[in-house]
Specification:
The longest helix has 13 residues, at 57-69. It contains four helices and seven strands; from the N terminus they run αββββαβββαα. The protein is α+β, with helices and mostly antiparallel strands and 150 residues long. Strand 2 (30-35) and strand 3 (44-45) form a beta hairpin. One of its GO terms (molecular function) is GDP-mannose mannosyl hydrolase activity.
Length: 150
């Protein structure tokens, strides 16, 4: 596990690789959460997280799904790969001035039949289910989430 100082060096010097989960329900609505953490704190965003060093994509997907959604042992094969995206932020996890954050994001879409008790309060302060058109019309949904629906 990286120390905060070492992680700041990584953020300052390299892009991070992450997985975003584009989760839909049976009605076609998309799950977004209001972010607690930087970057993009306070905006609505799809769940996701970064891939750790030496972690396989399958292990990262399962870990992120459990941490962000509360779903244990979700297989990456249960999702559809939507493509590679770039996310750029003017800030960083620590609020360090002058340090931007750059993510390379692997986006995966999945539809859940049961959405009872979905989400984790330590990751997002609240959750919403929005149709793609609602998501695109709101100014508080982050541009990087809206990009998945354009």
């Amino acid at each position: 596990m990286l120390t905060e100082i070492d992680f700041m060096d990584v953020v300052r010097l390299t892009p991070l690789v992450a997985i975003d989960l584009i989760v839909s329900d049976a009605q076609g609505r998309v799950l977004v959460g209001r972010r607690r953490n930087r970057p993009a704190r306070g905006t609505w965003f799809v769940p996701g997280g970064r891939i750790l060093k030496d972690e396989t994509l399958d292990a990262a997907f399962a870990r992120i799904a459990e941490a962000e959604l509360g779903i244990a042992k979700l297989a990456r094969s249960a999702a559809r790969f939507e493509g590679v995206y770039e996310h750029h932020y003017g800030d960083n996890f620590a609020g360090e001035p002058g340090v931007s954050t750059h993510y390379i994001v692997l986006a995966y879409a999945l539809t859940l039949t049961s959405t009872a008790q979905l989400g984790r309060p330590e990751q997002h302060s609240e959750y919403l289910w929005l149709t793609p058109s609602e998501l695109l019309s709101r100014t508080d949904v982050h541009e990087n989430t809206q990009a998945y629906f354009r």
